[in-house]
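Dear support,

I submitted the protein below through the web form. The confirmation email said the job was done, but the results page showed an empty box. After a refresh the structure appeared. I'm attaching both so you can tell me whether what I see now is the final result or a partial one.
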Amino acid sequence: MKRLVIANRGEIARRILRAGRDYGWKIAVISTPEDQDAPVRYEADAVLEVDSFLNARAIVAAAKDWQADLIHPGYGFLSENAEFAQLVEDAGIAFVGPTAVNMRAMGGKESAKAFARKCGVPTLEALLSDELKSLPENKWPDALQKRGIIAPYLVKASGGGGGRGMRIVGDFKDLPEAVRRASQEAQASFNDPTVFVERYLVAPRHVEIQVFGDGKGGGVFLGERECSLQRRHQKVLEEAPSAVVDHNLREKMGRASMALVAETKYRGAGTVEFLLTNDGSFFFLEMNTRLQVEHPVTELVYGVDLVKSQFELAMGQWPAQLARPDVFSVPVPNGVAIEARLLAEDPRSGFLPTPGPLVVCKESQLFGVRVDSGVSEGGRVNDRFDSMISKIIAHAPTRAAACDLLSRALETTVIHGCTTNLPFLTACARHPNYVSGEVSTAWIGENLSALNESLIPETLVEFFQRPDVRRALASALLLRSAQFAHYVPSASAAVHIGDRFASLIPSSRERNASGLNVGSKLEFSAVDVLPAEEPHVFRIRGRGLVECLKGLSEESLHRSTFSLQAASHRARSANGTELEVLCTLSRPRGQHIQITLFGETLTLEWPDDTRAQLEVGVSDGVGDALLKAPMAGKVLEVRVTDGDTVNEGDLLFVLESMKMQLEIRAPRAGTVASVRVQAGMTLAGPDVLAEIRDSV
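What the results page shows now:
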C-alpha cells in the first residue's frame, strides 16, 4: 500500500486526499499547531505536525520518518519551491509535481520570461530583480524608459502567485516603497523576497493554458481557462473555455505553451498564463509549475482528473486518461464550467479579510454543481492563512446555463459567523456583461458599485429591521434552541417555556408548536416565523410580509435578483395572497441575528440587548478618536509614538491578515495620545491601535 503525504491545508488538501483514497492509499497530512481545527486533520490517517508550512526540511523529515512514498505539495506554500522538490527527491520520496530543474527554469517569473523569449513566445519587457538591486533608485527611470516600460508599473513577486507580492504603481515616486512592500509580502507568502517591475496593461483578458508534460519533451494541453475577473490581482471567477477564444486562437496559444514544455522537458501539470488583448495578440505572463486553484473547470470540461494524472505520472506511467504525449492535438471542450471562489472577505469594505467562526456553513446541493471545501460548520476561517472557504463550480452545456446554475448555487450557499463575498459573486454571475462574456481584468473595478448593491429590495431590508419583526426572529431562534437543548420535552410543548425568554416575546402574540405570531391577524404588521425541517431554516409569512412586498409586481420580482423562482431561498405565492419566504436564521454573536434569503445575508441588532455595542472605527467623544484595526491579524509595523502629530492620510500602522498587508492611515489630523499596540502583536479583531486627539 502506497503512503502519501499532503504538504498543504484547506480545500486543496481535502481534494488531494479524496483522490488518494480512490487508490486505497495510507494518507498523512502536514499541519501546524495553528491549524488544529482543520477538517482534513480528522480525515487523514495521520497528522504530521511541523512549525510552519514553509519549513521544507521539517516537512521532508516528518514524511521520511512516516515512510512516505509520495509527497503532493498542493498549491501555494512550497509547491513551486525547487529546493523543497529536490529535498523530497533526495530523501527517496516521489515528488508529485515538476522537477527541481523545471521549477528553476519556469517557476520563477523572471527565468520563465527568458525561456519564453527563447521559444519565440511574445513577452512584456521588465526591469528584473538583479537590476533593481544593483542600480541606485535614481537610475531606475532611465532603465525603465530604455525598455519601453512606462507608467503605470506593475511590481510582481518572482516566485509564487495569488496576487501576493504585487503592487500597481501610477507614479514613479511611489515605486521604491511599492517594491519594498511587495518584497516583504512575497517573503511572508513564498519565502522568496525577489520582485521585478514590468509595464501594467490596464484592461486585457487573463487567459491561461493547462499543460501536462511527460518530462521528456512531450505532453498535452487541455485547453484554456479565462481568469479575467480579478480583484487585487487575485482571481474571483474562472471558466473554461474562454468566451472569446476560438479554435484557431486556442491552437496558437496551445502551440506556444507546448513549445515551453518541449524546451524545458517539463514534467506533470502546469499552467502557462497569457494576457490577451482585444486584437487577439497575447503576451506571456508566467508559468505556474503546479496545480492551479481553478483546475476543476478544466477537469469538468475535458473529463479528466488532474490530481490522479499527477499521481500516475509520479508512479512512472503516462496517465491513461490523457492523449498521446508525442502527438499535438487541439482538445474539444464539452460545455462550460465556471468556478467561484467563496472567500472570507467583505467586498463592500474594500475586500478586507474577515476571518472568523462558521456558525452556519451550508453548501449547495444542486445537480451539476461541485463544491471543493476546506472548512465545515462549527469551524472557522483562520486569520493565519488565506481567506478561502470553498470553490463552487457549475458545469452546464452553455455559458448562459452555467451562469444561471452558478447563480442558483451561490444563492443556496449560506455562511453565518463571518462576512463573505457571496452576494458579490452572485451579482457577478448575474451581470449581463459577464453572462455575455464582455469582461477584462479591469471589469470588477469599473463595475464595483453596481456589484456591491443589495440583492434584495430595500423594502424587504426595512421590513426585517423593524423592532417587531426582529423580536419575532429572536423569539423563534430561542424557541428552537430551547427545543434542541431539551428545555422542553418536545416540540409540542414549546408553549411552556415560561419566563426564561419572556422579555423577548411580544405581549400581543400567539404561540404554538410550529412557530410564533407577532400581532393580531388583522393588523398590518402581523408576521409568522415557523421552523422548517432543515437546521437553521425558517419560513416567514403573514400580512406584514405581503404588505411589505405589495409595491413590487411579480414581473419585477422575476426580473430582479429577488427571484420568486430561486431554488431554495424562495418566496411562494398561494392564490395570489399568501406569501412565504424561506430563510436561514442564526445568532452568531450575542447581540446580533443573521438572516439569509435570496443570496443576501443581513445582520440585525438583537432586540432588547442592553450590552454596549462593539465599537468599530473612529469615535470616542467630540475631539477624540479611537483608531481600530478593521480585522483580526498581526501588527507588522508601528510608525508613530505617543505625542506625534499626524496629518490626515499619514501611514500609522501596517497589519498583516491572511498573508496580505494592509496599511492603516490617519483618519484625520491630530495628536497621537497613546499607541496601544506594538510590532509583532496578534489582534483578535477590531482592537484599538491608537487614540488620536485634536491638536491643541
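Response: this is the final, complete result; the empty box was a page-load delay. Residues 57 and 646 are 46 Å apart (CA to CA).
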